[in-house]
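Supplementary Methods, section 5.1.

A reviewer requested that the exact input to the structure prediction be made available. We therefore reproduce it here, unchanged from the version used in the analyses.
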Amino acid sequence: MYELKSLFLTTPDATGYVRGSLDIMGRILTELDAAKIAHLAELTEATGVSGRTIFTLGNGGSAVVASHFVNDMGVNSWVDGKPGFRVTSLADSAASITAVANDASFEEIFRRQLQCSMVQGDLVIGLSVSGNSPNVLRAVEYANGAGGTTVGLCGFDGGKLAKLAQHVILVPSSKDEYGPVEDAFSVVFHAVSSYLTMRRGRFLHH
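The structure derived from this sequence is encoded token-by-token as follows.
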């Protein structure tokens, strides 16, 4: 049985449920692979130093997390007047998304944006809790073939994204419980962005 549903059935009062959900989240975070998250930081930094672009993409809650990373790695990573990283979320342009979805298909909304903007050496980070979002998969597949570096953030069993992306961060989680995975995505991105922002500041002051 799913962890959160089981928790609710056995502890239906709000305080007990919240305490239990926090315990579940804590366990998920301790099971994340720190080395793989550190490698994402290295890939992100290398892309930024080379002047290339970091693209993020995802649907629903994952789209919001993808946008938040852009905020943290862009304007929030300014140090002593030095601009942040070149980073953009393909989930942010309502005009582009609705145009492609209307004229082609929703599965193409991210791939077509990459075709317009991505160059060899760019970093593409796809977020999909199930690992099976068709529009994320098509974008990652395109980036692989166009000389990009691809990272997949996924939950459950990783789905197709875990096999397609060049680098994978898997959030260990119960199937069909999306919230804890999206929360973990945020933690991963905050770890990367805070580390790189402080690292940039240290280098600037030496």
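The mean pLDDT is 92. These observations are discussed further in the main text.
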